């Protein structure tokens, strides 16, 4: 097959994980790849690791840029890419050998512009596991895909490969987290159907303590707060089921920020952000779209909610200890 797939990998301070990621790409069963490594101003040996691999495999293209974040690195890679289809991989993750062969074969066979695969968390991957040769793939219409994506929070762009035509002049919003929410929703809104693999081809690394997603709450995370409402605002043309799922997604998203701001009050000293969150939840919350924690935000005065939050946090901690005790019995 002569279809070229460009795989864009933003790289930043991942020297402990980068070899595994690149090895998983160069050892793909599908060989017609353009592997684009964008070193986003790494301060460790990540840049040198990229250069080393490029010397031994002419499919690898390495670009060194000033640090600007993953969205800028992805956009740089998009501009440099030449593939008929484009995929993304995060540099601390890895993919299984047959991923791109299976996705592109299904795409061409069914004339699909977007094909998605399931993922598995890294701590659940065991060495020596027997390969599952059964391919479980299907075609989903837009409504079915959106329901699944919103309900299960499957917005990450690394789950999919995309036909170049659907990404034409489409770039990531720079300087914010949760950029994938905007990007994925905009793309799904433009296609009538997508391919979906239940096979877990992509391995998501949950064991990297320096990952931005697992880092402490910060102003950068606070600046991503509009992603939840974007899902609500851009699904109004769909069925009530999808709109309800979008609202539930937003409630959970905003509740996370609201709670985090109580534990990081230096980021919201005058309480304006929390007030805006309460007003947004109040606007969309109803009996039909009931969410317990969001309801608590709406009805409880800030002082009482703070007490509720700390008690609930302690309850969860105790439950976790009890659960762990029984596991060790």
Q: Any idea of the CATH topology of the largest domain?
A: Spore Coat Polysaccharide Biosynthesis Protein SpsA, Chain A
From the spread of the alpha carbons, the general shape counts as globular
Number of helices: 13
What is the CATH domain class of the largest domain?
Answer: Alpha Beta
> Termini distance?
54 Å
Q: Percent of residues in helical segments? A: 40-55%
Strand count:
9
Class by SSE composition? alpha/beta
> Whole-number average pLDDT?
91
Give short descriptive properties of this protein.
single chain; 329 residues; alpha/beta; Spore Coat Polysaccharide Biosynthesis Protein SpsA, Chain A; 2 domains; nine-stranded mixed β-sheet; 46% helix
List strands and helices in order, with pairings:
Blueprint: E1 5-11, H1 18-26, E2 33-40, H2 46-56, E3 60-65, H3 70-80, E4 85-88, E5 94-95, H4 99-110, E6 114-121, E7 137-141, H5 142-152, E8 160-163, H6 164-167, H7 179-188, E9 193-204, H8 219-222, H9 227-233, H10 240-263, H11 272-284, H12 292-299, H13 302-327
Parallel strand pairs: 1-2, 1-4, 2-3, 6-9
Antiparallel strand pairs: 4-8, 5-9, 6-8, 7-9
Helix pairs in contact: 5-10, 7-9, 9-10, 10-11, 11-12
Report on this structure:
With 329 residues, the protein is of the alpha/beta class. It has two domains: 5-204, Spore Coat Polysaccharide Biosynthesis Protein SpsA, Chain A (Alpha-Beta Complex), CATH 3.90.550.10; 219-327, no CATH class. Helices cover 46% and strands 17% of the residues. It has 13 helices and nine strands. The chain has helices at residues 18-26, 46-56, 70-80, 99-110, 142-152, 164-167, 179-188, 219-222, 227-233, 240-263, 272-284, 292-299, 302-327, and strands at residues 5-11, 33-40, 60-65, 85-88, 94-95, 114-121, 137-141, 160-163, 193-204. Strands 1, 2, 3, 4, 5, 6, 7, 8 and 9 form a nine-stranded mixed sheet that branches. Helix 1 (18-26) links the parallel strand 1 (5-11) and strand 2 (33-40). The chain is globular, with a radius of gyration of 21 Å.
